[in-house]
Structures are given as C-alpha cells and as structure tokens.
TrEMBL record:
The keyword Transmembrane applies. It comes from the Bacteria. It comes from Prevotella melaninogenica DNF00666. This is Na(+)-translocating NADH-quinone reductase subunit B. The chain crosses the membrane at residues 56-75, 95-120, 132-160, 166-187, 247-267, 273-295. Pfam families: NQR2_RnfD_RnfE. Keywords: Flavoprotein, FMN, Membrane, Phosphoprotein, Translocase, Transmembrane, Transmembrane helix, Transport.
Length: 296
C-alpha cells in the first residue's frame, strides 16, 4: 500500500499544469504496469477483467524465460565446446558467460524500443502501449549472439517505428515487430546473420569463457545438411538444444515449456500453433515435389 499511496501522492505533478506534466505518459505507463487500472467505461455495456494487455504480455514474457535461460547456458556451452575446454568448464561458469553475453542485448533492446515508445506516446499525448514488452525480449532471442549492439539498435529502431508506430501502435500493426527486426538485419547486414562464423561467442567476458581465433566457424545442423556433410550433433543434443543457432531457437524442450505455459493460461490457441506446423509442412512438401530450392 505504501507504493500505491506514493504513486497517488505524486500523480498531480504529472497531470496537466503539473511541473512534470511532460512525462505524464511515462508515469501512466509505470503506474498501469504495477497496478491494474480501475477505470471503467462511462457508457455502454462492458465486462471488466483483471487481466489487461500488460498482464497478457507479462505472461508471454514469462513463457519465453525457459528459452532465454537455456540460451544463456548454450552460449557458454558452445564457447567451451569450440575451445575444446568442455571438460574443464562448469555449468555455472557456462551459464554466467552466456548471461553476460546476452544481457547487454536485452538491455539495449528494451532501452531503445521502450525509449521510442515513451517518446512517441508523449509526442502524441497518448498512453504508452505495452506490445514491446514481448518484442523487447524476442528480438535478442532470435538473433545470433555475435550480433553487434549498434546493429541491434538500428534494427530495433526500424522495427518499432516503421512496423508498429506508423500503423497506430499495438494491435494495429500488420507486421510482427520482432520478425521485422530480424528481416531488417538479414537483408541489411547478411554477413552478421548468416554463415558458420556467427553462432559462437568468441571472446572471454570478465574472466569467463574462452577467447577463440577470429577465423573459427561452427555450422548448425541445418547448415551441415545443406552442405551435404554429416551432422555432428546427436538427436538428443538437437532436442535439448546443445547446438549452434540463434540464442532462443535451439531447445525444443524449452520452447515446448513456453508453449505449455501459453496454452495453460489460455493466452495462446492450440489451433494457431498447429496451423504453423501444418503450414510449414505443406510448404515443405510443395517445395520438395516441385523441385524448388528454398532460400537458405
């Protein structure tokens, strides 16, 4: 209650005429993130639900935590494996190395994305929208760990401005913000997003991990298949996620845990999830039957 009382006490400073009224959208954003708004409609018929958009987005972020945590561990695992020091590395050391490698990307993603959201909302005199709560963590999870931070800044800014805000914000955009950032990176900086040299963090961080030579490469299982070489990873490693790849994409188990959370909380629809797999299967069969070569 003390926090609620404090927020109510400082609210007049952010209202029209207050000395901090220029930051009203920022105040409303933090207030509604911490507490469910108690406003109700003044006319018509409506149903009041304690689960608003911010709570839904928070549950989606929660479902991404397993993939994020495993991705942190896998970053350190791949670094130790590439250095030939896997027998000497500890689980905690590999996880801490991965956390130190991934955390700056998460911070940059949120600082840049939410900064644009806050500035845009204040400029238009609207409430801050909550959609970027999910995109902010998705973007670092779907890119290689070696992606430079300055490139990530450009991708986040492009995605938020050109695929979200200009369409009217959350719920109005016709493109997925995280996928738009990934597409921007793929076409603008292909050398940073493709090839065998981008999947393993090569530098030691604060005494953790191992420094690898610049010319080191490690192909993903799909890359090995595309090259016609034998796959080095076992089925068990591919299911667990102990393979090179973008940070949050490798572990089937971690992603499945996130899917179960979304289904159990009724945030996601099993029909939508099933359609993704069916659509991918159908298109794969079409490419195979027509002899078309998919873009690598």
């Amino acid at each position: 209650m003390s926090l609620r009382n404090y927020l109510d006490k400082i609210r007049p400073n952010f209202e029209e005429g207050g000395k901090l009224h220029a930051f009203k959208s920022v105040y409303d954003g933090f207030d509604t993130f911490l507490y469910v708004p108690n406003e109700t409609s003044k006319s018509g018929t409506s149903i009041h639900d304690a689960i608003d958009s911010k709570r839904i987005m928070s549950l989606v972020v929660l479902s991404l935590v397993p993939a994020m945590l495993f991705g942190m561990y896998n970053i350190g695992y791949q670094n130790a494996l590439a250095a030939g020091k896997l027998a000497d590395a500890t689980c905690w050391g590999m996880f801490l190395y991965g956390m130190l490698a991934l955390l700056p990307k998460i911070l940059v993603s949120y600082i840049v994305g939410l900064g644009i959201e806050f500035a845009w909302a204040q400029w238009k005199g609207e409430e801050i929208q909550e959609g970027y709560l999910v995109s902010g963590i998705l973007i670092p999870l779907i890119i290689p760990v070696t992606t430079p931070l300055w490139i990530l800044v450009l991708a986040v800014a492009f995605a938020v401005i050109f695929t979200k805000e200009i369409f009217g914000g959350t719920g109005m955009n016709i493109f997925n913000v995280a996928l738009a950032a990934r597409a921007f990176l793929f076409f603008s900086y292909p050398s940073k997003m493709t090839g065998d040299s981008i999947w393993v963090a090569k530098d030691s961080i604060l005494g953790f991990g191992y420094t690898l030579p610049d010319g080191f490469t490690m192909a993903t299982p799909l890359g090995e298949i595309a090259q016609g070489t034998s796959v080095n990873a076992s089925v068990c490693d591919m299911v667990l996620g102990l393979i090179p790849g973008s940070v949050g994409e490798t572990s089937v188990i971690a992603i499945a845990i996130g899917a179960v959370i979304l289904l159990w909380t009724n945030i996601a629809s099993w029909k939508t999830m099933l359609s993704v797999f069916l659509g991918g299967t159908v298109m794969g069969l079409i490419f195979h039957s027509t002899g078309a070569t998919p873009i690598q």
